[in-house]
Write a structure and sequence with these properties.
Blueprint lengths: L1 H21 L4 H14 L3 H27 L16 E13 L4 E19 L5 E10 L10 E7 L3 E6 L2 E7 L7 E2 L23 E12 L2 E15 L3 E10 L3 E11 L1 E2 L2 E2 L6 H4 L2 E13 L1
Antiparallel strand pairs: 1-2, 1-14, 2-3, 3-4, 4-5, 5-6, 7-8, 8-9, 9-10, 10-11, 11-14, 12-13
């Protein structure tokens, strides 16, 4: 009889331990349940109460577990696919502005650029690091030039891309309309006005459009997001950079204009438009013309 009693107690202890692991209920509820357990081997009423409450709490635990499993967040990582073999080809228009005090000079260039995604590696934090190789060529009929290799990092909540050895937080996940973030968090701060980092000061990233449909270069993208990185315009200075991303493609458009109506000690005409009156700076516009898959 004593052996049978010990066996029943041991069995109920295992049940309690399993139940507590499956359903992390509060300590008061569990203490009450434990007191019923201590009674259950003394009388029939205690045993009945034990098994009734056990069935109720087991059902609650199963329900709670199912609810947790069914709740998932769609981070929409497919706005920046990084699968190996994925590539995007862009047409690029580039203009450099220079005013010498007499003439407004514009140097223009048109070419193609291709981004090819390579292998991915999971680091110790289970974040996904990926490689990207860039190629350029003067036109669609020419051979691709020498490769330029860079890399990026996708965490659970953002996409980081290294451009010219500078890390930017390009996107945050999941995208939400008007959500802002510090995309230049990792850009070094340098008070030297001639520093290469000065241009990135005062940028404020945010989503201007989310899950919108648009057509670009004859291609329709049913789901796209617009990430505004900077939009600072005054009478003398213009700093605008916007990127558009499409689901299952990645970046499909970029506009970057960094212009000034001053060129050192030489001031341009503030009454001219930016296309004709910029004394220094550059503008870059690029749009996707082909991608795979």
């Amino acid at each position: 009889m004593i052996a049978d009693l010990k066996g029943r107690i041991s069995s109920q202890q295992r049940i309690l331990r399993t139940l507590y692991q499956a359903c992390p209920c509060n300590s008061m509820v569990f203490s009450f349940f434990l007191s019923l357990f201590s009674m259950s081997y003394r009388n029939a009423l205690g045993r009945v109460a034990f098994w009734v409450l056990f069935a109720v709490l087991l059902g609650f635990a199963a329900c709670k577990k199912n609810n947790n499993n069914n709740f998932t967040v769609n981070y929409q990582y497919n706005y920046y696919p990084i699968d190996s073999g994925h590539y995007i080809i862009y047409n690029v228009d580039s203009v450099t502005f220079n005013y010498d005090g007499i003439n407004y000079n514009r140097d223009t260039a048109q070419y193609q650029m291709m981004a090819v995604f390579g292998d991915t590696i999971h680091d110790l934090l289970d974040s996904v690091n990926f490689l990207v190789t860039y190629y350029t060529r003067p036109n669609a009929n020419a051979q691709w030039g020498s490769p330029y290799l860079t890399y990026g990092l996708r965490t659970m909540t953002n996409m980081q891309v290294v451009e010219n050895d500078i890390r930017f937080i390009k996107l945050v996940f999941p995208p939400a309309l008007n959500e802002g973030w510090n995309g230049n968090l990792y850009v070094p701060v340098d008070n030297n006005p001639n520093s290469a980092y000065t241009i990135f000061q005062g940028w404020n990233y945010y989503y201007g459009n989310v899950d919108t449909s648009l057509m670009l270069n004859g291609l329709t993208y049913p789901n796209a997001i617009v990430a505004s990185e900077v939009n600072n315009i005054s009478q003398l200075e213009k700093e605008v950079r916007t990127e558009v991303y499409a689901q299952n493609v990645g970046m499909i458009y970029q506009e970057w204009e960094s212009l000034s109506k001053n060129n050192g000690s030489i001031a341009g005409n503030i009454n001219y438009g930016w296309d004709t009156g910029a004394a220094s700076g550059f503008s870059i516009h690029m749009w996707a013309v082909q991608h795979y898959p």
